[in-house]
Automatic annotation (TrEMBL):
Highest classification ranks of the organism: Eukaryota, Viridiplantae, Streptophyta, Embryophyta, Tracheophyta
InterPro entries (alphabetical): Endo/exonu/phosph_ase_sf
Gene3D superfamilies: Endonuclease/exonuclease/phosphatase
Domain of life: Eukaryota
Listed name of the protein: Endonuclease/exonuclease/phosphatase domain-containing protein
Taxonomic source organism: Coffea arabica (Arabian coffee)
Length: 323
């Protein structure tokens, strides 16, 4: 963390060099679980675990110990850790076993949710072997990416508004010039613009609305206690209903963001949805790519520029081929 003058967080790190046998690793899993129960700060766990977490992390002919794999995954789950995305080779160790070469990914870097909340752009690079048969891991931590214009997304909580269907229909039936796909594209663009304004008017900031409704419930309770009239009682009964509705809108928002439809309706899983979205963003983040000359690029602006250049080259090649 040298050079970060404004650093305010305390970071905990556990560096692993695990035993080779399944039985001997049980002590390690137990100690990590004990740390996880008491730790409340950013926590990184990385090193040589001497076990894979899935058969996809192994190439060779020797059978693998499924019990050891299960124990490792159980330990990760019990510690509430998540693996960071990586670049480089799929394997971090190679050796000879029973007269044949095998490859495994024994090195990993895991972090807790507090780490992902504070450093969402952390990534891992598997470096090349040098004097060891294990690959060193390079962990890079960067601040959150600068905000970019938001793309349009249909929000499923819009449907909860009683007038949604009729207003969409009335907008769609407005007169339109042109024919065929041009007319369809124009209708969709017009509807998209209208939905943005409509959502802002009908729902506004759904998170701010929930906070305001919480304050409203507290205020109505104080007013009723100070003056328990029938009017105050009715107002007190209405306020929790508005709060509950705003919380349901929030839950549906996170449910859609996380794309997890299998959880039971009605359970308030907002924190779980939020964590799932962050985990997905971490895994899908692009930390570096190769440019047209096969050189690695890791600057965010260069990555964006190279992505645009790639598709431009692709389109040019298709136009030349088609001509």
């Amino acid at each position: 963390m040298a050079g970060h003058d404004n650093w305010t967080e305390t970071v905990n790190a556990s560096f692993i060099y695990a035993k080779c046998s399944k039985a001997e690793r049980q002590t390690l899993w137990s100690e990590l679980s004990s740390i996880a129960r008491s730790i409340t700060r950013l926590w990184l766990v990385g090193g040589d675990f001497n076990v894979i977490s899935t058969l996809a992390e192994y190439t060779g002919r020797a059978p693998q110990d499924l019990g050891a794999i299960s124990d490792f995954n159980t330990a990760i789950s019990n510690c509430r850790l998540q693996e960071l995305s990586y670049t480089g080779s799929s394997y971090t160790w190679s050796g000879i076993r029973a007269g044949t070469r095998i490859w495994k990914r024994l090195e990993k870097t895991l972090v807790n949710q507090q780490w992902l909340d504070f450093l969402p752009n952390t990534s891992v690079q598997h470096l090349n072997h040098t004097s060891s048969d294990h690959s060193p891991l390079l962990v890079s931590m960067r601040p959150a990416s600068a905000s970019v214009p938001k793309s349009f997304k249909f929000q499923t909580f819009w449907i909860s508004n009683p007038g949604f269907i009729s207003t969409v229909q009335s907008n769609w039936e407005l007169s339109t010039q042109g024919y065929g796909m041009y007319r369809l594209a124009f209708k969709l663009k017009r509807l998209k613009t209208w939905l943005r304004h409509w959502s802002k008017h009908q729902f506004g900031d759904i998170f701010q609305a929930a906070r305001q409704h919480e304050i409203e419930v507290q205020q109505k309770e104080v007013l009723y206690e100070a003056n328990p009239t029938e009017e105050a009682r009715e107002a007190l009964h209405c306020a929790p209903g508005r709060l509950l509705q705003s919380l349901r809108v929030q839950e549906e928002y996170w449910r859609q963001k996380a794309r997890l439809q299998w959880l039971k309706d009605g359970d308030c899983n907002t924190r779980f949805f939020h964590a799932s979205v962050r985990e997905k963003r971490t895994k899908l983040a692009i930390h570096r790519i190769k440019d047209g000359e096969e050189a690695w690029v890791d600057d965010e602006e260069q990555i964006a520029r190279e992505a645009v250049d790639f598709f431009q080259r692709l389109l040019t090649a298709e136009e030349v081929g088609g001509g």
